Amino acid sequence: MTIDKTLLARANGHCELCSSEEGLTEHAVAHSSASDIDHSALLCATCHGEMGQPTNINHWRCLGDSMWSTVPAVQVLAWRQLTALAAQGESWAQDNLDMLYLDDETRAWAEAGVAESDDDSAPTVDSNGTRLQEGDSVTLIKDLEVKGAGFTAKRGTLVKNIRLTNNPLHIEGKVNGIQIVLVAAYMKKA
Ligand SMILES: [Zn+2]
After folding, report:
1. Which of the chain's ends, N or C, has fewer CB atoms near its CB within 10 Å?
2. Distance 111 CA to ligand 1 centre (A)
3. pTM here?
4. What digits encode the pLDDT tens for the residues 75-114?
């Protein structure tokens, strides 16, 4: 596979996640409308092979550095892989995620890729990408109109003992004594 010269130059001939020079390949970052180098990253064989399925956990400590890349495609890969690691219970990955700021467009791109690869076992995550579990407590990060119930659940409302649903984007919880479906992305783990 011929690697795009501009991409090679941007990456300075190293894996954009771990800096390795072995088995470099052009990795198309999924679920973007374009396939130019702005939507690709130069990855080594290990990073390429384990993207989305991290098994060599220590290898992925490299994300603590590479997540600060100024290249959106690299930020997206780092965010997704950290999310996958956090879902496996790696607290350092969660700590990094908590620090990683993505602009709205980049974040939407990152999340779209995760949503597309979802299956029934996909984690339900809150607005910070923190995994939510059955029985957790969350707070609302914005006012939510509860349709049909005639009230607005205010930002900051604590919802205790949530339940997960079949849809990783939704949780169930009681607000004002009524069991309702809530959008996980508008919640923050308490
Ligand atoms: Zn690598």
Report:
1. N
2. 22
3. 0.60
4. 999 999 999 999 989 999 999 999 999 999 999 999 887 7
